[in-house]
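Form 7-S
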Amino acid sequence: MDFRALGLGLTFAILWSSAFTSARIAVRDAPPFLILSFRFLIAGLLAIAIAWAIGQRAKLNRAQWISILLFGVLQNAIYLGMNFVAMQRVEAGLAAIIASLLPISVGAASWLLFREKLGRLGVAGLLAGLAGVLIIMTARLQGGVDGLGVVLCLIGLAALTGATLLMRATNSTGNILMVVGLQMLAGSAILFPLSLLFETWQVNFTLNLGLAFGYMILFPGLIATIIWFTLVNRIGATRAATFHFLNPFLGVLIASLLLGESVSLRDAIGVLIISAGILAVQISRRSTRKKAGPNSNLGARPSVVKDNRR
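Output:
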């Protein structure tokens, strides 16, 4: 892995992890579904405009349009919607830890549903991830963490896992930015009616809200998307996904620095164990795919999975 790839991976991990903190700031001053619907509307239009300017077009078949809708529901509406609602109840660091379990949840689901081989290292990684979560959650539950907030984060994780599995066999269409923009618009179209039905539109137009909203659109939304696909094209999806092991640590660190969230020794130990588990799962899956050979479908690259996670 060259230094440019290393820099891209670190930058992506920082941007992805920081999104939880910006979301936590934003939901203090505005309803979560309303924020997300306008965020996806603006970011989606920007992504489509950029895609159009570089020659990408929305030339998709029926199956691709269906996948865009489903992905918009699972990732943008359910995963992010549940996380934004949850962050009215739980700290950004805890939400980041739960969401960072994605490589482990996908590895477990692929193992159970698709019989994808993980090997001993992969199984050890799954068990380590579970152990790390138990260490953190037992301490947090004893400290009075909001149970509903945790459940909402877990529902979001399940939805994102489903989205990842849904797209695992979808090959790149060559117009990724256009597809990402359309997915964002799909998410906006779903979340806006939910906001009308279930939320009271009480918005405090503060500087913090403006900065957090603008940051979410530009950095975790668009810039992180471009960085991710640049990284995937440079080193491959499996190697790029190895940078996920930094997310639990970075998510907790950024929330602690910017929001003043406390981090206990048990939190630190749990984060380290989860990070080690994520890294073990990714290394195991990469080794398994190498052994399976180029004709195996185990390494099918998810073309639009890691587009706008935050």
